[in-house]
Amino acid sequence: MFEAIHEQTGVAWKSWKIWDAFQKPHEEKWICCKLHKYPVTPVKEHKRKEQFVQAHFRSLTDHYCPGESDEHWNLKIQIAESIKNKQLLLSFRKEDIPYEIDETIPLDKYIEIRKKNRQADVFYQTKNYNSLLGNGLVIEIQVSEKIDSLESKAIDWIRNKYSITWVDKYPDNGILEIKYPMGLYYDIIRECNGLKWNKNKKKRRFSSW
Fold first, then answer.
1. 157, 75: one domain
2. 32-90, pLDDT tens digit by residue?
3. Residue 35: count of CB within 10 angstroms of its CB
4. Which residue in 26, 36, 45, 197 is a FRET match for 11, CA 20 to 30 A apart?
5. Quick check: pTM over 0.90?
6. Closest C-alpha among 79, 59, 60 to residue 71
7. Is 64 a domain residue?
8. Residue 87 domain-assigned?
9. Do 185 and 87 sit in the same domain of this protein?
10. Domain containing 151: what range?
11. Alpha helices of the chain — where are they, by DSSP H?
């Protein structure tokens, strides 16, 4: 588990942030969530043999908390790290989309970023406004969420000039296919509040991305 509630304040904390925020995190009381309230304890990042173990919260009981799964969180981290390190290619309909990275931005600024009324699982902010990507790219982790819900999010993100896509696993080919580039859908959203092409909609060409 990578997030837990600080029992005294009721504030949710990520497992890697508590080590700088608290002098003795192990002496604080932590619970899995506000609904189940099962006690958990923090584990600092460490190496087990040759394998790196990320900071996390370990349950102190045999109870299972059905919050965000480790699978869901690990995929967020994997996608975010790959975007930050430019290990993924961005593509739309088999056309590569070049993108730039600000190397000074830390990894935690790529994960669970809120803009207005929406929160992105993984978030990439473009260095400069891009005619196709807009202000950036949102990547949602689709583990159990339905398409209708994701498309509702897409409308909001595009309206705010962000592109969006979603994945249910790490792209085996190293190519992240963007489902809704802002530049191709912004006018559609503005005109009909949907993701379908309008019959009278003029085609737009982006000769340079």
1. yes
2. 887 678 899 999 888 766 667 778 888 898 776 656 666 777 888 899 999 999 999 99
3. 11
4. 45
5. no
6. 79
7. no
8. yes
9. yes
10. 70-192
11. 18-21, 70-84, 147-159, 182-192
Q: Is residue 205 part of a domain?
A: no
The CA–CA distances, whole Å, from 175 to 69, 100, 150, 189, 202 equal: 24, 16, 20, 26, 29
Q: Are residues 12 and 77 in the same domain?
A: no
Q: In this structure, is residue 16 part of a structural domain?
A: yes
Pairing of strands 95-97, 89-92: antiparallel
Q: How many domains does the chain have?
A: 2
Beta-carbon contacts of residue 51 (< 8 Å; ≥ 6 apart): none
Question: Do residues 76 and 174 both lie within one domain?
Answer: yes
Position 199 scores a pLDDT of 47
The Cα 113–Cα 121 span in angstroms is 7
Chain segment 154-205, per-residue pLDDT in tens: 999 999 999 999 999 999 899 999 999 999 999 999 888 888 755 444 444 4
Q: Per residue, what are the HEC states of 147-185? A: HHHHHHHHHHHHHCCEEEEEECCCCCCCEEECCECHHHH
Q: Please tell me whether residues 9 and 96 are part of one structural domain.
A: no
Residue corresponding to tokens 């902010």 = 125
Residue 124 Cα distances to 79, 89, 103, 129, 171, angstroms:
11, 13, 12, 12, 17
Do 50 and 75 lie in a common domain? no
Q: How many CB atoms neighbour CB 180 within 10 A?
A: 25
- Domain identity same for 165 and 85: yes
- Does 53 share its domain with 153? no
